[in-house]
Structure formats: structure tokens, C-alpha cells
Amino acid sequence: MTYMLGAFLLTLVLSGPTWGFLSRSNGPDHVSISRMSLIQKVTETCRAVAEATGQDFKITGSSPVELVQACLDPTATGDVSGAKFKSALQEIYTQNGLVDRDFVNSAPHHFNSEAFLEGRGLIIEGLVAIKANIRKENFQAARETLGRVLHTLQDFYSHSNWVELGYTEPYINLIRPDLPLENLADVGTATCNDCASGKCPNSILPNILKEKKLTSGYMGILSADKPKGKCSHGGAGDLTSTAEPRGGISKDERRADNVAFHNAAVNVATAASLQLLEDIRLAAGDNNFLRMMGIARSSVVCFVIDTTGSMSDDIEAAREAVYEIIDSKKGTQDEPSEYILVPFNDPGFGPMIRTRDPEKMKSEINNLRASGGDDIPEMCLSGLMVALTGAPDSSNIYVFTDAVAKDIYLKDTVMALISSTKSTVSFFITNPVGRRRRSVGDNSFEDYKDLALASGGQAIEVSKSQLPQATDIILDTSTSALVTVLQRARNPGKQETFPFVLDESQKNITIYITAQSITFTLTNPAGVTQNHNEVSGKLGSINTVGNLWRIRLHADSMKGTWQINIISNQPYTLKVTGQSTITFIYDFVERFGGPHPGYAVLSGHPQAGQPAILMLSVIGRKGPSSVTIGDVSLVTVSGPETVRNSTITDMGNGDVLVTVDAVPEGEFVVCLKGTDKVSGSDFQRQSTTQMSVSKVNIKAVADKSMEPGKTFTLPFSVMTQGSGGQYSISARNDKNFPMSKPPSLTLITGQYANSSVTITPPAATASGNDVTVTLEAKSSSGADSNYIVLRFSVVTKITDFVPPLCEVVSVMADDCPRDVSQCDPFKWKLTATLSDGNGTGVESVSLRQGSGNLTTTLLSDPIIQANYTASCCSQIVEFVAVDTVGNVGKCYHSIITDFVPPLCEVVSVMADDCPRDVSQCDPFKWKLTATLSDGNGTGVESVSLRQGSGNLTTTLLSDPIIQANYTASCCSQIVEFVAVDTVGNVGKCYHSIVTDFVPPLCEVVSVMADDCPRDVSQCEPFKWKLTATLSDGNGTGVASVSLRQGSGNLTTTLLSDPIIQANYTASCCSQIVEFVAVDKFENVGKCYHSIVRSAGPPTLPASLPLCLCFLVSAFVLRF
């Protein structure tokens, strides 16, 4: 409970907000380390998959779209979106950063206070859960745990003295519980010297360094007490750093006194992250690893189907739709990556059937039979709830039914799951004939319409004979790159004109209208019109079935601003979609404080009475730099239309922070407008999921896994800024595990009430399953409510941590010639034994490297024999054995005799003509001469340029000494080329003529903010001012100064001045400023200042542990 309370308090006591998981310093942080590691591992995996199938792996750029396109079959037709990959990365980053909010006072989560065994325990527990989740294809749960595990693992290298001890490789024992953690300093061993300044390069005692004793800094939030002689973490939030020995050994941020250790910690933390990811990849297999990372062609196709007696025609229509999707999209980028089927009846529903095999999906839907369900209401929402929690986020879900919902009490839970998952739900409702209606209160098909509208879907009402015509919408939306341009609803209906923008990147543009009675006129940017009764007109083709109008625009439709004028006095909905790789993902967030403040993703509704804050990532055709964001706004879907514009702060990498001060009343969506730089055309995109604000707030944390058969307690807290009183509490989970909860809580305005729910997974629950828990709090009047959705893994406690063992028994390679060019047609053979000792047994053996043939005896044998045969041209073999709990053992052998890479020696560099001022670099040139040799090796086979835009030539590669000559413009100041010998050893040549590596420096000279009131709501019309100086020392000079955060006015004196004065003036409502100075070598210096004042901690009940929120032990690797 202590950790959760700390998290709650941090959301109330705010210091200067920043993009919580991005560094403000001139160094990497958790997100950048994780991003680098994840992208590298995904790229490696995609390359391996391509090479295994004989395909080329070619990346055309660095954007998610281009990486996903290269990872998937690049020859397949159709567009592919990078949104799922970007979303998967964002889920990992989010959970990584939340460790600093949810576990601020937990030493094990950050390897503080010498909590090595406990920290390693968290990593192993997470690793076991990740592997179990992947085995059960619960990829979101795996990603969320991965984010938290990466944070803790990375913190080890910044908070311990690992790099001070001289280690440059990761500590493998942290992810191998079968290996002991050795040479730990005990609690009575002094570890640090006193450092009064707090800026000593290395405070570790000489005997600790000599004996290679492992320690980490102690962190004190409420007390300066620590064991005698122990190192502190350091920093303003650590009270122990003021007690001798003073100072701290944290390498969170790059400072003048710790540059070398900070950089070393970054490098080892990155290598450790890659090591962890490789272990997961080996256990999961390449395909499942990529699925976990969101590398997939298309969103899944998910059907929720009523199987009661009157549904035979509907089941047949769904079957035909599935067959058409499978047959028409095979071999394209729109081929579904997964199929999900959830049947429901009365009283039963499920189970969920999911498969990647299209033939199995055909078989499963063929097996559906209509039976039972004589009375009208059915368990529709129960089936839909299973689909929403089982399908990936942002899925399209199609519900077929002819009956209202018996389980209407689940409507609020389903609404919460729609909002949380951002999935789109469409209903195909047919008119029941001959079925007995039973009284179900106020339940009606209107409930389905509410759910469809909230999700951005359609509620399509047709007769059973018309249903096959209506399912075309499923084909339209089964695509990897579906985008929504516009969605509106009017109830009651009225005449209105709706403008929308179409851009050059879009194709398959379709307009959907649902209404019982309607007329409309469509107009293109040139003024050409087509009305509702022109089935085939100048602008497109119109099909009608039941209450659905489907307008497919011609392929050559003009780009620009279109409009549709609708006339109806009946309720109607309008939706415009297309296919495009230009899209965006977003989350509503809230600020949290501490020494590493940031933003946490909201699970429920944003808080009423406060600005709405979003983190939004834009995905362009060629990466984020290929689009310009014009405007982000919150727009009401159901009239009268209200638009609330925002202020936008660019956070880099395509991410922006969006703040909307005045939020629309009622339900709203996110609208994005911008420009596609590839074509120069304006674009418009809209989110599908509706959102609203609430005065109720619920807090809970998914901090660990559940264990089958064991009762799990989930603490939570509820608060309202509205009227106090009784608030009903509901708690549900998608697996129907037994739960207990309080029926209600009595709330006092502005104060949190604490309680808990218990969940007991049955003892027979398979390890790796996940369970989604939805908590809701609703006022007695029903006027206000909020929810939180949490996902937990259910993992069996394991005791087998030892990987399978491999022993090479024999190698027969005498026939292989030393000259690799003569390798064909000779072969070599290897025999090895594999065993899992007293473990759980070997489950799989797979070839990871080598093009030969691998066979094994039965995996159930206690000793497994592996036989490998390959051409002498394929000289390395690696295969892995994975046991039933995911421990990975490796077999590796090489028959290569040449392991030394080619050597490079730079002989001469002529760069004297290059001017110091890079802006004057043209037309000057520089030259480099180097020699390459392979000594007694097999000889250099290729030389290629890796970095630099100059011209590289060589003498004959068959020469014993090869001369390489490189000539380049002085504007291209770095060259790297590689020499590869005939067995694949790689040698590198690198040279740089860059002389300025130091970023511009910023010093805040004065801040005048005394006029700013402490109560931020009174901030208008007061202003504050800041003056700073910028200089580039002996560097090349400042080239630009730009505002990164803040809505004030920034001016500077001449950039050519040796000392530049920067003046910033802003409203007291805008309390943070960050600007950057970039020199002519693109070194970036930053200025940051905040005038945010702490409001002081809230009053706590006497029974709760006290947590001082602005002094925190949790730590963002300010790498």
C-alpha cells in the first residue's frame, strides 16, 4: 500500500512537468535506451526471418512504416501502417516510465540501497511472466511487463558501482537466476569516501574497487539515515546525500564530473537491454517476438456471433464474409494477421477462438450451429466483453445478433473497455421473426447504437435477407492502414453541411451514413455534386441496404476540401474513412511529480475542471519528419458541434504534448490536421473512440502477477471533486474469476477513500493467461462515474531456472578446404546431446544460425541427440533448446579457422583546406588514405562505404596490402567504411574531421516571477520573465535558438555575438520554459526553467503511511 499511496500523492504535488520519459539533459534516458534496443532487436529479428526464407531485407528509411514494410513481405501489394508497431513501443515506454511514479519508494525497483537480490527477483519474476504471456499469445500483458523490467534492469547500471569497477559488459547473472550474485558488499562494509561538493568523479573507496565489491547508493526520502560509510544515491531528493559520506554515485544525468561513468552506464545498460530482449526472443521464437512487438500486416478480424435458433441466416452471412476476406486478401498487406471468433447464446458465451490459420477460421465458423435461445434477450455483452479483452487494442469487432442484450448490466463495463482499448465495434442487427420476447426492462437495440457510436462503429439494421449486402463494410475495414477522416452523429436529425479534407495519400475512400430516412448531396473541391439518388455518379457509387448508405468515391477523386449536406429529421450518423499510412496514436495523460516528473497515461476519463493533456504521435509516410502538424483539437461528435483548440509542444521523434484548456462538454474525439510533406497536401484525421471528463478519479496499480489458486488483493482509492456521498463500486474481470469488493464507498469531496478488491484465479488456470480487471465508481445519482482498466498476468510459481545443457560430442569437418571459395560440394557434420537435468523438460529445439539440416531424437527422451549436417560453405551453427518454462540453452560451433578481421590503418588525412565555419564548407574538399590487410587470413572479399557522402576507391582486393582512397566535401566530415574477409570477419575504418563536440552552454541569469500568484487559477494577467546567456566557448558558434516548451515570447541578441542574451516573457499560466541552442556542428544545448510551486502534501488519514512526495528514490535513468 505504501507504494500506491506514494504514487497517488505524486499526482497531487507537482514539480516542473516534463515529458516524463524523455531526457532534458544532453544524454540518453530510459526511453532512448529502450527505443534503441527494441529497434535494433526487431531489425535483427526481421533480417533473420527474411534470410531464413531466402528474401532480401531492405529498409528504405528509419520510420516505423518503413521498418514494418521491410519486416513484412515487401513484395505484397497494399499499404502497411506502422501504427501498431508504434503503439507497441509506446506501451513499453509508458510502463517503463511509470516505475518512477508507481514505485518511487521501492529500492528493489531501482536497485537502490544495495537491494540486489530483491531487484534481481523483480527482473526474474517479470521475465517468467513475459515468456508465459507470449506462450499464451497475451502480447499486451507481455509488453507492459517488459517495460517495467527494462526500467529496473537499466537502473542497475546507473545506481550501482558496476561501471566504476571497470566492467564494460552486462551482468548476465541479473537475468540468470541459476547464477549467484557474487561479491556483494555487506551492510557493515563502508563503500564511499565523503564528497562535500557532491561532484566528485569517483567516491568509491579504493578497497571496494580493488576487491570488486558491488554496492549501490542509498536513498532517503524521509530520513538521512543510512548504514555507516555507505554511498548515497545523490541529488536534491536524497536526504542521505547530506550525511557523511556525502555526495552520490547515481549516473542518472550526464554532468561535468561524471561524463565517463555516465556514458559507460548508458552503453552497458543498452547492451543489457539487448541481452534481455535476445533471451525473450530465443524463448518465444522469431515470429512470436515480432507479434509481441506489433509487427503485423493488419488488424485482426474479430466476430462476435449470436448462435441462438433464429440466427442461421446471420451465421451464413458471417461465414461468407470470412471466406471473402480470406480469399480476397491473401498475399496482400491487408491479409489479416489473426482471426478471432466469440460465439454467444443463452445462458452461455464463448469460448474465444483465435487463430492465425485462415483454414482453421473457416473450419471454426463452419462448425457454428444455431440452436436454443427461445426468448429474445441473449448474452451479447458478455461475448463482446470477451472479444474486447482478448483482441488487440484498436481492433475492429463485428457483432451479429437479432436480439437485445439480457446482460445489459455490463453496458458500463463494455463502455469502459471500448474507451480503454480504442477498439471499434459495429453491430449487424437483423429483425427477429417468430421469437418469444421476454421483458427485459428498458433494454433495446438503442443500447447497441450507443456502444457503436462510442467506439466509432456502426449499428446496421437490416433484414436477414439483406445481411449479405451489408457485410461489405467488413471488407472495407479489414485493412492495415484504415484511417478515419470524419465522424459525426445527430440526434435528433437536422439539416447540416459537414466539410472534410481528403489528401493525396488516401485511397479506397468510403462514406457511411446510417439513417432510416435521409437525403444528401456530396460536393467535391471543384464544385461537382452528386445527390443521394444517383446510384452511379460523377463522384462515386452509392449502395443502400437497410439503414446503411455506403458511398465509395472514385479512385481518382480530387484532393482538398469536400462537403456533404445532409437533410433529415431522424437520427443519423456519418463516417468518412480511407486507407493511408498517415495516421496518429494518442493517449490522455496526467502529470506526476518528483525528481523525475512526467506524464502517466490515464486509464479512465480525464479530470473535469482541469486542462486535458494528450501525448500524440504522428506517423507519416516517411517518418515523423514527413508531416507537419497544423492543429490538434477536441471536437464533439453529437451536435451542436464544439471545437476546442490546443497548444502544442513538440517533444521530438514525432511526439507532441497537447494541452486543451477548455474541454467540450459531453462526448468528444481528437481531430488532427496537418500537411503531408511528401505530396504537399493537407490532411485530416480523427480518432474513433469518444471520451468525456469526470470529477471522479480512481487509482490502482498493476504491480505484480497473480498466482493460480492464490487470492490476490488489489488496493484502490477513489476521490471526487464533485459532490460527496455514496458512490457505488463495481468490479469485474473478463475470466469470471471469483472476486469480492465493497458495494460502495462514502466519499468526501477532494479526499481519497481507500479500499481493495480480491481476485482468486482458480488453481487450474494455465500459466501465462492474463486477466483484465475493470473497476468503476458511480455517484448515487448516476450523473458522474469513472473507471480504471488493469491487466494482470497469471503465472505459476516456478522453481526451474536452469537452462537445458548442450554438449558437442563430435565434429567431422576434415573434408572442408581451407580456401572457402572451394567449399562446394564438401560437407561437415556435428553431433551434440541436449538435456534438461532435473528441470521441466525440453519443449523445442530450433536452428538459429546455419543453412544446414538439424534433426533430433524424441524431445521427451532424458538425453536428446541432435545431428547437424551442412555444406562447408556454411561454417557456423547455432541452435537453441527451450524448456517448458522458457529457459534457453544454446549450442554453438564454428569450423572457421580465421577469426581475425581485416586491419585498417589511416596513412594520411589532408583536411587543412576545410574552414572552421561549417557554413562555408562548400566547395572545399578533404582526402584520406588508408591501408587494408587481412594478415594470414582468408583475404578481403569486399570494401564498402558505411558513412559519408564522398567517393571511395581501392586497389585490387587480391593485393596483400590494399590502398583505400576517400575524397569528400568538407561538408561531409565523417567517413566509415568496412572491409569483410571471405569468412565474414568485419574490419572498420573510421575517421572524423569534426573538431567541435561541445554543445552551447546556457546560464540562467535572472528570473522575475514574484508577481505570479501561488494559485494558478489566478494566473491571468500576470507575467514572468527570464534572462539567460548562451555561449559556444571555443566552438563553431551558435547557429539557431528555438523554443521547445512554453507559450511565451523568446528573443535573443545577435547569434554571432560571443555571449548571446536570451530574454523570455510569458504569462504566469505558462510556468515552464525550455529552449535549445544548436551550434554549427549540430551540438545541442538546452535551457530549462520552471516556476511551478509545490502545493504541499495533502492531509492523510492517521492510519496511512506518510509519503513525502517531492523527495523520491525512484529514478529515471537520465541517460
From TrEMBL:
SUPFAM superfamilies for the chain: vWA-like (SSF53300)
For this UniProt record, give its keywords in alphabetical order, as a comma-separated list. Answer: Glycoprotein, Secreted, Signal
Residues of the VWA7 Ig-like domain: 696-795
Instruction: Please provide one cellular component term from the Gene Ontology annotations of this protein.
Output: extracellular region
Start and end residues of each Hemicentin/VWA7 galactose-binding domain: 483-581
Enumerate the CDD domains for this protein: vWFA (cd00198)
Q: Does the keyword Signal apply?
A: yes
Source superkingdom:
Eukaryota
Q: Where in the cell is it found?
A: Secreted
Q: Can you give the residue ranges of the VWA7 N-terminal domain? A: 67-290
Q: What protein name is recorded for this chain? A: von Willebrand factor A domain containing 11
Species for this entry: Gasterosteus aculeatus aculeatus (three-spined stickleback)
| Origin organism lineage | Eukaryota, Metazoa, Chordata, Craniata, Vertebrata
